[in-house]
Amino acid sequence: MSKTVIRASTLDDLDAVESLENRAFPGDRLSRRSLRRYIVAPNALMLSALSDGAFAGYALVGLRARSLVASLYSIAVDPDMSGRGLGKALMLAVERGAAARGRTSLTLEVRADNSGAVALYERLGYARFDVLADYYEDGQSALRMKKALKAPA
Ligand SMILES: CC(C)(COP(=O)(O)OP(=O)(O)OC[C@H]1O[C@@H](n2cnc3c(N)ncnc32)[C@H](O)[C@@H]1OP(=O)(O)O)[C@@H](O)C(=O)NCCC(=O)NCCS
Questions:
Q1: Is 18 a catalytic residue?
Q2: Using a 6 Å cutoff on CB, does residue 83 contact ligand 1?
Q3: For the chain, what is the domain count?
Q4: Is residue 43 part of a domain?
Q5: Is residue 93 part of a domain?
Q6: Whose CA is nearest to atom 48 of ligand 1?
Q7: pTM of the full structure
């Protein structure tokens, strides 16, 4: 049984995050420069998943000032480690982090043809509320989904 740890991303994760970003997404990738900025930005929360001590995935949410709504900017799990609950663990961790910073809901956009990610979000209780036509570089549309976050106990 492998051991999963979720922790705040650091600049030491940058190479691994960039390499995963390039493997996980065929287009619409975050640049190294953006990833570096988000790791240190006070208005973003970026978490890394480690499996048996090795980097295995990350999730990034935007926490804009004066907004109660957090936005999922990206999530990716190493394809060699998919289907082991790491995506779910990352999502639950960013939800807790956003709620701890006073956010009351989390919204996201996902490619309408990304059935795996849509399944993950639906399983976690996200509901579709809009469709954005021609949203991605290749013209694919986005589903907008959202979930209310529980206030921390
Ligand atoms: C989407 C992604 C993050 C899922 O990560 P993961 O670690 O494989 O997902 P998990 O193992 O935590 O799956 C959790 C739940 O999501 C659902 N799910 C995840 N991937 C799925 C798939 N490919 N097909 C069907 N259901 C899937 C399942 O219901 C699963 O729960 P269950 O096994 O308990 O029923 C991962 O596949 C990935 O990085 N994809 C490429 C990047 C990407 O598309 N990111 C999303 C951008 S919006």
A1: no
A2: yes
A3: 1
A4: yes
A5: yes
A6: 110
A7: 0.97
Question: CATH code at 63?
Answer: 3.40.630.30
35 belongs to a structural domain:
yes
Per-residue pLDDT for the chain (153 aa), expressed as one digit of tens each?
Answer: 889 999 999 999 999 999 999 999 988 899 999 999 999 999 999 999 999 999 999 999 999 999 999 999 999 999 999 999 999 999 999 999 999 999 999 999 999 999 999 999 999 999 999 999 999 989 999 999 999 999 888
Ligand 1 proximity of 120 Cβ (cutoff 6 Å): yes
Residue 100's alpha-carbon distances to 8, 37, 63, 94, 150, in angstroms, are 14, 22, 11, 10, 9
Residue in 58, 120, 140 to alter for ligand 1 test, most ligand atoms within 8 A of Cβ = 120
135 catalytic residue (yes or no): no
Does residue 60 have its Cβ closer than 6 Å to ligand 1? Answer: no
pLDDT, tens digit (0-9, with 9 covering 90-100), for 86-109: 999 999 999 999 999 999 999 999
Look at the block and give the residue holding tokens 């990833």. 35
CA distance 149 to 79: 28
Residue 117 belongs to a domain: yes
Task: Identify the domain containing residue 122 by its residue range.
Answer: 4-148
How is the beta sheet containing 105-111 ordered, strand by strand?
Answer: 4-8, 44-51, 54-62, 69-77, 105-111, 142-148, 127-132
